[in-house]
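so the lab meeting is tmrw and i was supposed to have these ready like two days ago... anyway. pasting both below. for each one the top line is the aa sequence and the line under it is the structure tokens. i havent really looked at them closely yet so no promises
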Amino acid sequence: MSIITISRGTFSGGKMLAEYLAQKLGYKCIDRDRIVERAAASGVSQDDLRLAIEKPPTFLGQSGHTQYRYLALIQAALTAEVRNGNAIYHGLAGHLLLRGVPNILRTRIIAPMQVRISMVKKQLTYSDSEAIAYIEKMDRDRRKWTQFLYGSDWGDPSLYDMLLNLEYMSIGDAGEIICSALKQPRFEFTPECQRAIDDLALASLIRANLALDPATSDLELEVTALAGSVSFKGELLSAGQAKEITRIARSVPGVKAVQLGKVVVVDRF
């Protein structure tokens, strides 16, 4: 029982590899659309959520805060989907959204530009030049997105446990390599892994609820959970928001204690 994240550029073969692995291993295959659909169940627009995870902000301020709010919903949806293991997520920044959870197999899939162009042309009937422009734009946006949110270079190989190039390797060959890696103790879904993802799921759900509640939707807080004890770090706009944070957190099943020692009220006027 494991969790696999597959990071890939546009039309690099990652989707096909995820579907192959899901069938071979009997795992749940989760893509961006499934996460967006689950996150949108809270009442936000699916189109707005997709834009938030596809487009880097053009400036700081409201655009950045809007993305923060939508990212909170996306992370809560993803952790809820994968928290029981036996799951493969192929989408943007899964390895970063699940950061801190041990034993996840974080894979990066690449393919030469000509292979990617061929795939784009088959599905979108673009010319070579149109396909190149499309791929380059999508890759550029993804790189900016991860840099803005995490200060990380999307293509940095140190963020992954495994990088596979599909230039000469078939989907089946790549799948066999990943399956072999899953047999290593390093990627077992241990009780420690379960506790870590349960903590992350709880913290993510609280952060999403804060983003949705009118009393706290203007905040950007760091939320941490450890065995039911939840702590917060960040700036409040009024003293009354501290009570609202406590109210919202305590309404979430599994919360045993709430600590506000690292939040401060800031006068922005």
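ok protien two:
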Amino acid sequence: MLDSLPHLRPSAFPPLERARPRILQVNLGRLCNQQCLHCHVAAGPNRREVMDAPTVDLVMATLERLPFEVLDLTGGAPELNPGFRRLVRHARGLGLRVIDRCNLSVLGEPGQDDLADFLAAEGVEVVASLPCYLQENVDAQRGTGVFAASLAGLQRLNRLGYGAPGGALTLDLVYNPQGASLPPPQAALEADYRRTLLRAYGIRFTRLLVLANLPVGRFGSTLLSRGQLDAYLALLRGAHREANTAAVMCRDLISVDWQGLLYDCDFNQMLGIPLGATGGTAPTHLRDLPRLSLDGRPIAVADHCYGCTAGQGSSCSGALDSHVVEGLGRGV
């Protein structure tokens, strides 16, 4: 796989500083039952990088010692980690919000028959990947049969109360473009999703989160191999909006990889850019976190960061600014 990092630095992206960390985002490994074209983690069924039990224990101890408010679990498919449920129970017992970044098809995997029931019983917030409401687009990006499996997963979650209007179980869907373009305005696309999914499949959800594809991992490698990386970076830089820097996810989030190493965000993790707040070049480990003073410290940036500030902006919680001029979604 081609490495996009040499093309992302040096960078003129504006300096960023941390606020108090509220969110611990933990990548439980790169094992996944899917192998998606856009995946910045380059996850798949043959990946063997999985967080071990002692590191899961360290995550739990960290949640006890530090005042995090949210545990955000990602992967790969985080649910395939043997420690996933133990970690969820522990965090919920501490009163934390827990987010599961779910690919939906994992709900039908062997041995996961009760996964949806577990998520509902623990009050876990589900952020579910569904990059389109059309079968041909989803299957082209994520693999044949994934659309049908995703719908089955959504319908199962709906039966448990996820996505019900006014209900307590949050079900957010995630859209990302098919290729080297910015996503369309979030509010208008959410209306299309609601109308189509309800009419065709009886599916309800809480919110649609619109994310840009960052030139990292498998997607970055694809752009390089097609000679499109420079044009895509120019698109992102040209659509940069300074106001979005105030709300980017890295300001109050710590990213932890499957080995327990710390990063400013999941994208920096995949690029191997260490936590900028320490001022060093070597990775910092989760065991060191209680001794670090992060408030007001710098965040490591490179040109991929323009993907989070371009147009309406993009973060783990979707668009940063829903009031965007039309036309920003044009491709390169």
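from a quick look at the 2nd one: The first helix runs from residue 53 to 65. The two ends are 22 Å apart (CA to CA). will dig more after coffe
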